[in-house]
Amino acid sequence: MMRTVAALTLVLAATVGWLGRYVDHPPLAHTGGFGEPTCQRCHFEYPLNEPGGRLTIQGLPDTCRSDTSYTLQLTLQHPEMLRAGFGLAVRYADSGRQAGRLQPLDDRVWLDTLRGVWYAFHSPAGTELTASGKAVWTLRWMPPDTIGRVVLHAVANAANDDASEFGDRIYQESADCLLRPR
Question: In what order do the strands lie in the sheet with 83-92?
């Protein structure tokens, strides 16, 4: 009996630790682009892009120049949201390779890399709402010199702040641009 209780306690502690760690660092490669899953892999209670909420991407024009940097703004809105998170990557549309560099513009955004792709995501401070039912993250994208079509995949979690996978709504959006030379 004691072994069963001890084993159950370890499983529960590991689960709680696993769920809570995404406030610090969400799993990378969950943008929904290039065969990646989204956050809905774990936050599955509601359908992807459920009506009532919305994720928007601003700042990426249809045609980009390799000698111009772009300020990108992700905005997540949902009236019941109490905390939020996001993940984002910018890659070449034809290959999925990293396209350019990302730069956080404040303490709400962090970066990390996995298999040669840089991901922007929420910091602990970035999980706080910027207004009631709204979270905004801002970063800069510096395009590469190599021309081609690039695509930005983003996913965001309109969370209910109970530190579980239940009651959260996941939104996905993408944007693309044709990268032209200088």
Answer: 63-65, 169-180, 148-159, 83-92, 117-122, 109-114
Only one residue has tokens 């929420």, namely 122
Q: How far is CA 9 from CA 3, 4, 175, in A?
A: 10, 8, 44
Q: Tell me which amino acid residue 17 is.
A: G
Beta-carbon contacts of 3 under 8 Å, excluding residues fewer than 6 positions away, are: none
Within 10 A of 101 (CB to CB), how many other CB atoms are there?
14
Cα 60 to Cα 68: distance, rounded to the nearest angstrom: 11
3-state secondary structure of 181: coil
How do residues 37-71 score in pLDDT, each as one tens digit?
A: 898 889 989 999 999 999 999 999 999 999 999 99
Q: Say how far apart CA 64 and CA 130 lie, in whole Å.
A: 29
